[in-house]
Structure formats: structure tokens, C-alpha cells
Amino acid sequence: MKVIEVDLGKRSYPIYIGDSILADKELIDKQITSHQVLVVTNETIAPLYLKSIVNNLAGLDYDVLVLPDGESYKSLDCFNQIISRLMEKKFNRTCMLIALGGGVIGDLTGFVAACYQRGVKFIQIPTTLLAQVDSSVGGKTAVNHPLGKNMIGAFYQPSAVLADTSVLSSLPDREFSAGLAEVIKYGLIRDREFYEWLENNIDLLIQRDNKALIYTIERSCINKAEVVAQDERESGVRATLNLGHTFGHAIETGLSYKHWLHGEAVGCGMLMAADLSMRLGLLEQEQVDRIKRLLVRAKLPIKIHKDIKLKQMLENMKVDKKSRDGILYLILLSDIGQATITADYTEQALTETINHFLE
Amino acid sequence: MKVIEVDLGKRSYPIYIGDSILADKELIDKQITSHQVLVVTNETIAPLYLKSIVNNLAGLDYDVLVLPDGESYKSLDCFNQIISRLMEKKFNRTCMLIALGGGVIGDLTGFVAACYQRGVKFIQIPTTLLAQVDSSVGGKTAVNHPLGKNMIGAFYQPSAVLADTSVLSSLPDREFSAGLAEVIKYGLIRDREFYEWLENNIDLLIQRDNKALIYTIERSCINKAEVVAQDERESGVRATLNLGHTFGHAIETGLSYKHWLHGEAVGCGMLMAADLSMRLGLLEQEQVDRIKRLLVRAKLPIKIHKDIKLKQMLENMKVDKKSRDGILYLILLSDIGQATITADYTEQALTETINHFLE
Fold first, then answer.
1. Are residues A57 and A178 in the same domain?
2. pLDDT at B302 > cutoff 90
């Protein structure tokens, strides 16, 4: 088992990574530090892994809330539903929440933990690759608003993250690849060595080789933990973690969050960011091609979904959270392993990039 | 004009106190540091003071949201309504909210500011005595849940508080007295000298003498700011600010938040806390009588509302946020000017106190 510490002073916490975490009764018991526990999960995950958590809760005042599966449940309605359950159970501010699921369950449950009685403890048990390498680490919690994703939320850190690689065996191929997009991102923005390791090991990873998986999750979490420790509330360097996300969100919004997974949109978005970087003279064409090859091997899309038009892309990009006083800052690449935040690009270059990726 | 700094490192902010703050265009202009501004207020306050704020917003992309007046609008529904307005206006994370009103508007708007895009700036312009001396300072934001008050919220600091004493002239007498309860509280828990000043000046204060008002608000804010600077997230000493609140909340819940104002319930609750302190040998009977005399002069109730029964009081007290693992901690007094947090009391003494205050 690997342990990574996210260093945030009083809000520091460990990430445990291994292939039998959920079976490690002693480890789980040690994390549960309250007599009042609510497990939040969804209908897909509950039949698979809920039992191994509940087994650890005997003797406690606990309850389980099982939501339907899907992004549309990352809503203020479900937030209120969880809060109501906590109130009905008369749980006080020493209670603890456990988020057992992917990014939707983690973000939603984390936001409830941030707000219930102005903050209670919670544990993340991510069950997708994307959640294990990205959304469960770093304290970004949120729900969606009908007019925008993650628009209602808080920075709120969990007290521990438990990433069990064995749960990834049940993950559909497309979801696995979607998680790889965020993994590749860490290499691109700040870890060239890891990027090269990925180029050499992507086939092993696609086969879900356990050793490769543990290394991938560990290295991803180390990168994320370092960035978050430097800039918890995203006033600077943390924004680089959004490489590909402004393009990606615009695609997702254009598709009304259907057809494509978040990681797929981010994968395509990263290649678009690389392409724009090339047009601005920051990156070589050969480096863009190299990124494209890795994304293809990771089974990620490299063209924008056919339902999307240029005008729509441009408009959707403008409402991004990274827009400041009407200026849209983008995360671009000045090398493989080196990100830059800039508003120094032309509308023409941006248009050329989008056109290049339209089907 | 008096300026008090709330010392919270990066989250520090000033409280401006004076009798012509809202007319001070230069001061207000200096506080508004965004091009996108949403003013949130209510139907009672809007006709009186909205204009003087809006006059400062010419040339900016601003909007105003006027809610109905009342505690029932401190809800997740109104929270969502404000968020929706921000989304419709396409306001980004550099926008700013202005809360113009009493505690309901301040707590609700502050909670929206805490959550919109994971946190945007906001200014508190409190228009009641209670909000000026208590709720607008210290960063406690929240909305109510149908099963409990302030159950959904965040610790989130404003970027400035503007307390204009001239707006208090339009405040109904009962609301003014309710604010005095929180003022007297600061004297009781940590500022004996201020308490004695209040004993000597309460009649002047009741007449809303401007000099006495400014001194009262200043001294109250200094006390609150010192406590909050020591313990922002209420893991220790900040809990003493809740003197009388556990009793008070139980009364409010028993009355379904009708008939009595929050400050009235707190006033009666403080006397109950003093009475229980006396029964436990912490305080002299003479000191309890002295507190009672000041509350009477401040026109605050000193008996529990007649609709409330003993059993109901005991049950309502148990669901308090200060309950930890089933043990209810109470804020009591060991002297005038000296609070103590304790679970070291008997059910019998508590019952005697409640019985003593039942009509």
C-alpha cells in the first residue's frame, strides 16, 4: 500500500492507494472517527462495494443513502436530500460522511460535508479511475446548476481518500480511458518523466495491469497534491490543472452533457490546447503529434463531437469560470511537462484551432 | 467614523462604523472592487436605503434582487434564486455581492457568496442593530432547514462591513431591544467594563442616542472581532458567543420561530444561563438579579413565552449544534464578564432553571 500526504497544514490528509484497501478492515476502522456515519453511494456501486464498507460500521449509528447513477443527480435537489437525511437522523456536527462512488458522488457528498452545520468530516472512497486520480483529491466540491457545471460549491478537504485499484476491474472501457485523460494531463502540465513513462506503458495500463495502475494513481496523486498544497483555492498555479477543461467544458455544454464523458471531452480539449499552443509558436508541431498519438493509444477522441459547431464552441467557452472581467484565460503548453496560463492569443488562432478539430 | 479590523490573516477585513456611512460615496466606491455587482435586499429595506447604494453603481454591470422580508426566506430556495440570477447575468468568479439588510439577508447572501463558483467577494451592509453588532461580523453564513435553524452554511468572511447608525432610526423598538441582547452578551461573557458602561447608559441607548450607539457598536464589534480572530471556526472560545443561544433556540423552535424575535429569545436565554450558573454555585443570586435588571431596562423578556412547556424545552435543547456525541455543552457564567463552557451540570438543576422561567 502507498500513502501520499496532501500537505495543507491543519487540513492535511492521507491518500491510501492499494489493491485491497476495501478489504483492509483495520485501515477503514481507523478512518471512521465518529459514532454517526452516513454513506452516500449510487445504484451502480451499491451492489458491488457497499457491503464491504457497511461491514465496518457495526455498532455505530449509521445510515446509507443510495442515489441513482448519473451526472444529473449532482444537483441542489440531491444536496438537499442528503442534508434532510442527516437532519432526520439528528446527526450533529461530529458526524461523518463517506462518499462511495465516482466524481458525482464525491463532489456532491463533499459539498454536503462542507455545508452541513458549516462543516463535518468526510472520507472519499473513489470507485472510478478519474475520481481516484483527480476529483477525490484536492477538495473541490460542487453541484451543477442548470445553466452551468460545478457552479455551486466549496473548497473543502476530506479527512482521508481510500483508492482501491481492485474496484477498477469493473469499470467500463470508456470510463477507464476517460480517467486516463486526467492522468496524461499531469504529465503534460508538470511531469515530463511521467509523461514518457506513460508513452512506454500505456498498453499495459489499458490492460489494467495492477502494478502499472498503482504507479499511475500514485504519481497522479503526488502531482495533484503538490499543486493543491501550493495553491489550495486556485488563485494561481492550480489553474493549470484545468488544461483542456475550457475546451472540454464547451464541448460538454454543447452536448448537454450527453454522448461524451467528462474525461473524453478533456482529452480532446488537451489536444486542442496543444494545437493552439503550436499556432502561437509555444509548441512544435511534432510535439502536438506526439500528444495525439498517446491520446489515440489511450482510446480517447481527437476530434470534436460532430453535433458541435464553431459558433457554439466560442460562445460556450466565454462563460467559463476562468473568465475574469470578460477576458478568457487559457491553459496552454510551452513544452511537454510545462503549462502556461495566458490570455495572449488571438481570436483568429483560437478559431483556427476549433475549425481544425470540427468533424 | 470608527474602523475596526477583523484580524484573520489573508481573510482580514474592516468594519466601518459611523452615522453617515451610506452617504459616504468615496468610502463605498472604494469597497466595490468588481465590475459585476448584485445587491440583495428585502422589501422593507429597499424603499429606504437601496437608492443610496445603487447611486454608487452607475457604469457597472449591476443588478438588484429584492426578496420578501422574513426569516422564512432564509431558505435553500432563496439561495437557489440568487444563484440563478448570478448565472443568468453570466457573472463570473470576480463578481461581488452586496447584502443590504438584517441578519436574514446577510446570512443568506453570505452563503451564496461562499458557494457561487466556490466563493466570490461580498460586502455586508447591516441595517439592524443585531446585524451590526453580531451577525454581519465573523463570517457565519447559513440558511435554515425545515428541521433546524442555520443547519446549512459556511464560515465565509466578507470583504468589508459598513455599519451606518443612522439606519437604526427606522428600526421598530422590539427589534432594537433584540439587538441589545447581543450587546449585553459581550459584556457578560468577556467585557465587565462594557457591561458596567451599559448599566450606566442603557436609557440613553434605548433613546438611540447617536454617540452611545456608535460606542456600543464599536465595543461590540471589537469584542466579536477578538473572539473570531482567536477561533474562526468555533472549535473553542468562539462557542462562548452562544451564551443564551441554546436556551434561546429551544424557545424559538418551540414557537416555530413566531411571536418572539431571535434577540428576545437570546435575552431570556442568557438570564436562564445565569440562573443555572447560580444553581451550580458558579454565580451569586445577586449577580443574577443584576443581569435581570439590565434586561428589563433593555425591554427584553425575562420569562419563557407562555406557549412553551418543560418537556418541549428539554427536547429542543438536545438537537442543538453544540451537542457532541449526545452530550449537550452549555455556555454558563462564572462571573459577570467571564463565560465558561461546560457539560458539568445535572438534569435536575437544568429542569429547575426551566421551571423557574416557565410562565
1. no
2. yes
